[in-house]
Amino acid sequence: MSIQLNAAFDSGNIRLIDIDGDTVDVEIVADHQSDFFQWFHFRVSGAKGRTLTFRIVNAGKAAYAFGWPGYRARVSTDRAAWRLTDGNYADGVFSFSHSFDGDVAWFAYFAPYSMERHADLIARMAAKPGVSHRELGQTLDGRAMDLLTLGDGPKQVWLYARQHPGESMAEWWAEGALEKLTDPDDAAAQALRAKATFHVIPNMNPDGSFRGHLRTNAAGVNLNREWHTPTMERSPEVFLVRAAMDETGVDFAMDVHGDEAIPANFLAGFEGIPGWTDELGEKYYAFGRKLAATTPLFQLEKGYEKSAPGQANLSMSTNQLAERFGAVSMTLEMPFKDHDPSPEPEFGWSPDRCKALAHACLDTLAGMIDEI
After folding, report:
1. What's the chain's average pLDDT?
2. Do 162 and 269 lie in a common domain?
3. pTM to 2 decimals?
4. I need a surface site. Which of 70, 133, 296, 315 has the fewest CB within 10 A?
5. Is 170 helix (H, G, I), strand (E, B) or coil?
6. Is the same domain home to 170 and 273?
7. Which among 132, 356, 371, 134 has a CA at the least distance from the CA of 265?
8. Does residue 261 share a domain with residue 295?
C-alpha cells in the first residue's frame, strides 16, 4: 500500500514534495495573500508497520523560524489525544518521526480546534441558563462572528481568542473559560457573574482557522494590527468586535494567543500607551502577580520586552483597549512548546492545561474584580 498525505479538511495545511523510502518531504503552505506560515495539520495513511521521517523543508523560511529549536510536533491516532513526537531543526529543515501502529495518524503544529468543534461550543454554551448569543456579522468568507454574553454585573469584561488562527491553544482556553463561567456550582464563577458581564469571542478569526492559516484572515490581514482603523472590507472581524466593545465599554480585557518560541505562559501589557498611568498599570501587574501565585501554569520571568513610553503600537488590541477605554487590558501568550516551569513529558502544553489556565485566570479575576 502506498503512503497517502491529505490536508483537504478543516484547518489542514501541508503540501507533499517527495517520498523517498521512509522519508517524506513536505512544505507548509503560506497564508492566502500573505507570507506568513508555520501552522501545519495533515493526515497520513498507508504506513502501518513503518516508521516515517517527515521533513518540513521550508521550515527555515517560516514566520518564526527561531521557534523550531526545542519544538516537538503533535501526533494523534484518534483526533482527541495529541501526544508529542520527537523534533529536530537543522539547516532550515524541521524533521520528526513516527512509528505507525495503525492505518492512519494525524500530525499538527498544536492540537487543532476545528470550526466544527467551535459550532458545537456555541450551541452548547448558548443553551446554558443566563447565556445569550449574538452574531455580530460575517467574515469575508461569510462565516459568523459569534459573541457569547453572560453575567449581570456592571463591570464589562471582554475575553477574545484566536486573532491568529494557527494559535489553536487560544480557543481551547476560551472553551475552558466558558465551561467555568457556566458552572452553577463554581463559587468564583458565581461571584464573577454577579459583579461583571462577560463578553466572550471564542474565535476572532474563523476564516483563517478553517483555511489552515497561521496568522491572517481570508484577505491575508493580521487582525492584531487592525485595531486602530479596522474596515469591513479588510478586517471585518475587528471592525465588528470593536464596535460591540464601543457599545458596552471595557473594564477588563484579555486577548488570548500562542507564542512559537517562548516555552512558558506569560502576559504582555500596554506599557507605552499615551494614556498610561501607574495606577492603571499596577492593576495589570497585580493580576500577573496573583495569577502566578494561583497556579504553577503561569510565570513572570519570561516574556516580551515592554514598549518605551509613548511607543505602544495602538493597532494592537491590548494597547488600543487600554487607551480607548482605560481598560485593564492584557495579552495572554501560551506556548507551542511546553510550559518549562511545569513540563508534561507526554503531551506538552495541551488542551487540558489550556483549560486549567483559563480556570486559574478567572479565579484570579474573581479575587480582584472589585478593584478593576
Report:
1. 98
2. yes
3. 0.98
4. 296
5. helix
6. yes
7. 356
8. yes
List, by residue number, the catalytic residues: 333
Question: CA 348, CA 339: separation in Å to the nearest integer?
Answer: 7
Provide the percentage of residues in the chain whose pLDDT is more than 70. Answer: 100
Instruction: Please name every residue paired with 45 in a beta bridge, in sequence order, or none if there are none.
Output: 4, 104
Confidence of residue 159 (pLDDT cuts 50, 70, 90): very high
Averaged pLDDT, 310-338:
98
235 and 144 assigned to the same domain = yes
The owner of cell 457573574 is 193
The contacts found for 7-11 with CB under 8 angstroms, 24 or more apart, are: 7/40, 7/41, 7/42, 7/43, 7/212, 9/43, 10/112, 10/114, 10/115, 10/116, 10/209, 10/210, 11/39, 11/41, 11/112, 11/113, 11/114, 11/115, 11/165, 11/168, 11/209, 11/210, 11/211, 11/212
Please give the grid coordinates belonging to residue 344: 508534561
Is 272 in the same domain as 193? yes
- CATH number of the domain within which 63 lies: 2.60.40.3120
Helical H runs in the chain?
115-126, 169-181, 187-195, 206-211, 236-248, 278-294, 317-325, 351-366
Taking only the tens place, the pLDDT of each residue in 216-235 is 999 999 999 999 999 999 99
Structural domain that includes position 15: 4-108
Are residues 103 and 121 both part of a single domain? no
